[in-house]
Design goal:
The protein is of the alpha/beta class. It is built from 24 helices and 11 strands. It starts with a strand and ends with a helix. This is Helix-turn-helix domain-containing protein.
Length: 531
């Protein structure tokens, strides 16, 4: 539950807000009322206030001053400001100070209740996020105190050693470190690949989450009589190694179930997508090679997510190579058939998910699709760099990392391209858009390139098109507009000639006078006298 305070020098208005809404239904356990800023500060110091609804204009200190006082003390109090006047400066100051909303009185109780529902929902979400971060911090503190175990160091040496250790070297390491492994033991390596977190976290919280994931893996995998060692070789991978000795015969189906249970917990509790690969039981000297095989499988996996790949049965993965129907896709993109095109793409993606797809195949599809999109934009006389930005090609690496990433990327490409095509084909002509941009930016350094980028066209094409439509080049048109505005300001304002020049993009007064005289036959001063 939360606590609310209403601040208004009009006592009846404050009580009206307090009594006019069922605050308990919205989640507020207590509603305080203050009729001046001084009393409001006292209540804040005495109680844990979560939200303040405050009038701006009061005789003994206004709402802006209260908001500044709250910000100076770093208090996590959300505020809504009420006023009888729609003063822009008040609104601007309130936004700068972080108010949730700026409301004009009188406001209907239904509207205020609706706004407060959203405020409460946001506070609830923030509390959940803070609880999640506190859990991660607790694990982080434990992680800081944790010292590497002897067995973990042994496996780190074996698996991360730059080269291959022979059997004699491994036996010496076991003897030196008193590792309780029998020479006849075999081991099952299990690789977990963390494919991404659906929550954005600061670095410290991410490190804590990685440690929490490892602890969860240990608790989930090493049960039902199973023992082993957890290793954290990188921020994106977890590794478990389970020994199989004469007296340790595991139920492999139970092992797979445990791995799937860990994946499910990672999804639900840590918002992570995870791929899992169970390797074959091998001798200790062959564990590194088997782990490398699991890494290779992970590098080429773009379709299997949040489930277990049992490499014992799945040595060879035969992938049917499907190719998109680019001719149909191209025609749909050209005509702007967004829904139909996305449906075709999703149907193709479903086929990839069903039959499998390699990393190289997905990269090739991404490159071909981007090339097709560039071709369509070129046909529409649109500049692909302006439409997509400079990072569309770079993003292919991330798009090809998984089927889900590919779907998000290709949907974004389609929507962005079709929006650009439609914007050019809408009622507002290119000439009108160029004219508006020039008039809005007369005081800046206008160039053919900057204007072309604004309308998403090739600069050379824009210049040819503009000349054909208006009889002027872009440069001539800019000059015409500047002279026109200069004349209006010289005739209708008391601005100095230098200020007039600066307002239309001429920093050099002499240059402006020369250009103005060349266009009109008189200097700016002479023109003003004549009018």
């Amino acid at each position: 539950m939360y606590e609310l305070m209403i601040v208004d020098d009009e006592w009846y208005a404050a009580r009206g807000v307090a009594n006019g809404i069922d605050w308990s239904k919205l989640g507020f356990s207590y509603v305080h009322v203050a009729t001046n800023i001084s009393r409001a500060k006292e209540i804040i110091n005495e109680r844990q206030i979560d939200v303040i609804i405050c009038d701006i204009e009061m005789p003994m200190g206004n709402g802006i001053e209260l908001l500044e006082w709250i910000n100076e003390r770093g208090l996590a109090i959300r505020t809504l400001l009420l006023t009888c006047h729609t003063e822009f400066e008040y609104a601007k100051k309130a936004v700068q100070l972080g108010t949730l909303d700026y409301l004009v009185k009188p406001i209907r109780y239904e509207d205020l209740a609706s706004i407060m529902e959203k405020v409460v929902a946001r506070m609830s979400e923030d509390r959940q996020k803070e609880a999640f971060l506190q859990m991660l911090r607790a694990n982080y503190d434990s992680w800081l105190r944790h010292q590497p175990l002897v067995i973990e160091r042994f496996w780190t040496d074996v698996l991360l050693y730059n080269g291959t250790l022979n059997e004699l070297e491994i036996r010496d390491m076991i003897a030196d470190k008193h590792i309780p492994f029998r020479p006849s033991a075999r081991f099952i390596p299990i690789l977990f690949s963390i494919r991404g977190c659906r929550k954005e976290l600061p670095l410290r919280a991410f490190q804590a989450m990685a440690y929490a994931l490892r602890k969860e893996m240990e608790e989930t995998i090493f049960q039902s009589g199973m023992t082993g060692q957890a290793i954290h070789p990188s921020s994106a991978h977890l590794l478990a190694v389970l020994p199989i000795d004469h007296d340790q015969i595991y139920n492999l189906n139970q092992l797979k179930d445990n791995c799937q249970r860990f994946i499910n917990k990672s999804n639900e509790q840590f918002y992570c997508d995870v791929a899992c690969y169970i390797g074959e039981p091998v001798e200790l000297k062959k564990v590194k090679a088997e782990v490398e095989r699991l890494y290779e499988r992970d590098a080429g996996n773009v379709t299997i997510m949040n489930q277990v790949s049992w490499m014992i049965k799945d040595k060879g993965v035969h992938v049917t190579k499907h190719k998109p129907d680019f001719s149909t896709w191209l025609q749909l993109l050209k005509k702007g058939g967004q829904d139909e095109l996305l449906a075709e793409i999703d149907e193709f993606i479903a086929t990839l998910q069903k039959d499998g797809c390699s990393l190289e195949q997905l990269k090739e599809i991404c490159q071909d699709f981007l090339q097709m999109s560039h071709h369509v934009l070129q046909l529409k006389e649109l500049h692909a760099g302006s439409v997509f930005g400079d990072n569309a090609g770079i993003a292919i690496a991330g798009a090809a990392r998984s089927i889900d990433n590919f779907r998000s990327w290709v949907h974004e490409i389609v929507v962005t391209a079709i929006e650009a095509i439609r914007s050019v084909e809408q009622s507002q002509t290119i000439v009108e858009r160029v004219d508006r941009y020039i008039m809005d930016n007369l005081d800046r350094g206008l160039s053919r390139e900057s204007i072309a980028e604004h309308v998403c066209l090739n600069p050379d094409y824009l210049n040819r098109f503009f000349k054909k439509e208006t009889g002027h080049t872009i440069s001539e048109f800019i000059l015409e507009r500047r002279i026109k505005v200069a004349k209006e300001k010289l005739m209708n304002s008391s601005m100095s000639v230098a200020n007039v020049a600066a307002s239309i993009g001429y920093a050099n007064f002499s240059h402006f006078s020369m250009i103005f005289k060349r266009a009109t036959g008189v200097t700016p001063a002479e023109y003003r006298k004549k009018t």
